[in-house]
Amino acid sequence: MYEALVNALDPLELQYELIFVDDGSRDDTYKIANNLAIADSRLRVIKFRRNYGQTPAMAAGIDNARGKVLITMDGDLQNDPKDIPNFLKKINEGYDIVVGWRYNRQDKLVSRKIPSKIANWIIGKVTGVPVKDNGCSLKAYRRTLIQEIPLYSDMHRFIPAMASLSGARIAEIKVQHHSRVFGESKYGLWRIYKVLIDLLSIKTIVSFASRPLIWFSILASVASTISLAAFGYWVVVPSLDPNGSILMMMGVSMLFGCLAIFMLLSGVLCELIYKTGDNKIEDLSKLTFKL
Amino acid sequence: MSQNIDLSVIIPITERHDNIQELYYEYKKAVEQTSLTYEFVYVMDGPFPDLNEELTALKDKGEKLKVIMLAKWFGEATALKIGFENTSGELIMTLPAYQQVDSSELPRLVHSIEGQDMVVARRWPRKDSALNRLQSNVFNFLMRLQTGVELHDLGCSVRVFRRRVIREVEIYGDLHRFLPVLANRYGFKVLEVKTSQSQKDMFQRIYSSGLYVRRLLDLLSVMFLIKFTKKPLRFFGLVGMGTIFVGAVATAYLIMERLVFDMSLADRPALMISSLFIVLGAQILSIGLIGEIIIFSHSKQLKEYTIDRIIN
Questions:
Q1: B47 to B44, B60, B81: CA distances (angstroms)
Q2: How confident is the model over B184-202, as pLDDT tens digits?
Q3: Which of A19, A245, B12, B129 is the most buried (most CB within 10 A)?
Q4: Torsion angle of alpha carbons B196, B197, B199, B202, nearest 10°?
Q5: Do residues A35 and A149 share a domain?
Q6: Which of B230, B271, B308 is facing A47, going by the closest CB pair?
Q7: B275: chain A residues, CB-CB within 8 Å
């Protein structure tokens, strides 16, 4: 991998550094990387004490990077370093983030490509950032921008969405894809649940973090509707059907009414939390304004 | 002091304690057998004027110890941290202010740190009463279940670890008990060593029910901190959605009964209960969302990963 990178980057005549993040690997990877780094000081290796996951690995690399432009890639040769010059070109055109789109995906159709397409469509609709291939790790960023974007816990898939908080200009270019040579990917019910829940978090954050009251008001209005419906039932049914019973409906109505109030107050609480936090979305506007 | 200290022994004093002076001499004898340069630091978690006198008396006799007294009760973890900040040894050993382990075993424990980051003692074979052992077993079993870490005696305060462990692992309140678990979580190498239990560790541990509840809550919070710090919605989402699901299914069933079987919907409590489940689930979900906002608002200061080293 090191060789492929060096071969692709040397001809560009740029000052570059390579950062390998060792996320608790157990084989010889670290030793090999160590030796390479001793030989070539452009290679830096960050070693985690144990396995933390893809997002922390990416975050560590980003936090410690020094170049003006950052490129993130897969560690298993699925991405091709020869695509890098195209990314740099787009950045120079004025974009803040460039994402790759694996045009000719070398994966099984039914079990990988179709769920992926569906997932990407859902993510695009929910976050409002229609990236065609969220799973492609090959992306380019301006360092000053990406170092300020909050990145934690499995959020690497949603970086474009988080970055959109700052109004970043995003471009998408086609990249080559090589089939997975090593390793297996894990899917399954828990993973799907995690992605959906994360989507809910991201949606909450991206759309409403600075105005949480609005999101909670929306939720509260759903509860209020149910409450009013039950109340309506309580009022209307006795006149329609004297034998019909409406005893519980008042209770149900009040229950959902309480829920609505609870949600509104939660929204108010979140306003307070956001105000006293140190992560202000408005500050991100500084990163992308044009003079 | 200008001398280089290898081993700092921290002894936090909280509720109960044995004869402090006797214990000190015992510990000192054991530590001297390790041939390491050492210092003793006593941290009193709250005012203990009598002990203060005794320890000061020892100091006046020329013994190498520091005495720190906290103004009020803060918790053993805090006491530990303060003790740590006032030491300079590369290795730290925590010892309880009462007998738990045969002091003659301490040198062996200290030497086991070779190649590890933390060594914890496990009292084995147990000599104390069945009730004590039962409580200990249950607690440690629950902990193993939740965290998957193979430790058997979290109640034993005899531990040896390197400086950077306590520098990086955050503990507060009563969580000192879980230090090995958290250290393991941070990627440190933790070794459990069977140590023979002291004859004097026969204290009948019959605690108030309040204490049991607190321990269980500690266990819960540790588990929560370990698994869900950065994504609270995953935990609350699971519970919340599960509850909503139960409620929704029940409500749908009741409505179906009303429409199909003409069983009355609103004059029995069933609808109330099913609605309650839905409402409860929605509230749990909301709390999860609040959690997410909290994490987001502080994400600048929360570092998820621990770097072992950076080359170049």
A1: 7, 20, 17
A2: 878 888 888 888 877 776 6
A3: B12
A4: -160
A5: yes
A6: B308
A7: 251-252, 255-256
Residue A199 belongs to domain with CATH number? 3.90.550.10
Between chains, do B292 and A256 touch, taking CB under 8 Å as contact?
Answer: no
Nearest residue of B to residue A202, measured between CA atoms:
B292
How near does any CA of chain B get to the CA of A144, in Å?
A: 15
How many structural domains is chain A composed of?
A: 2
Give the closest-approach CA distance of A289 to chain B in angstroms. Answer: 22
- List, in sequence order, the alpha helices (H) in B148-231: 163-168, 179-185, 209-228
Q: Are residues A42 and A162 in the same domain?
A: yes
Give the model's confidence band at B207: pLDDT under 50 very low, under 70 low, under 90 confident, else very high: low
| Distance from the B144 Cα atom to the nearest Cα atom in chain A, whole angstroms | 20
Q: What's the pTM? A: 0.73
Residue that terminates a domain, selected from A208, A239, A263: A208
ipTM of the complex: 0.77
Peptide bond preceding B125 in cis form (omega within 30 of 0): yes
Residue of A nearest to B117 (CA): A49
Query: A183-238, pLDDT tens digit by residue?
Result: 555 556 667 777 777 887 788 777 777 777 888 888 888 888 888 888 887 777 77
Query: Nearest CA to A51 among B178, B149, B185?
Result: B185
Nearest-by-Cβ selection for B299 from A194, A197, A279 = A279
Q: Which of these three, A182, A208, A234, is where a domain ends?
A: A208
For residue B186, give both structure tokens.
């941070």
Quote the domain boundaries for residue A178.
Answer: 2-208
- Nearest chain B CA: its distance from A198 CA (Å): 8
Confidence band of B1 (pLDDT split at 50, 70, 90):
very low
| Cα–Cα distance list, B219 to B137, B165, B177, B180, B223 (Å) | 14, 21, 10, 13, 6
Residues of B with Cβ-Cβ distance to A154 under 8 angstroms: 231
Q: Which residues of A touch B269 (CB under 8 A)?
A: 248
Where residue A3 falls among pLDDT bands split at 50, 70, 90? Answer: confident
Write down the pLDDT at residue B177. Answer: 84
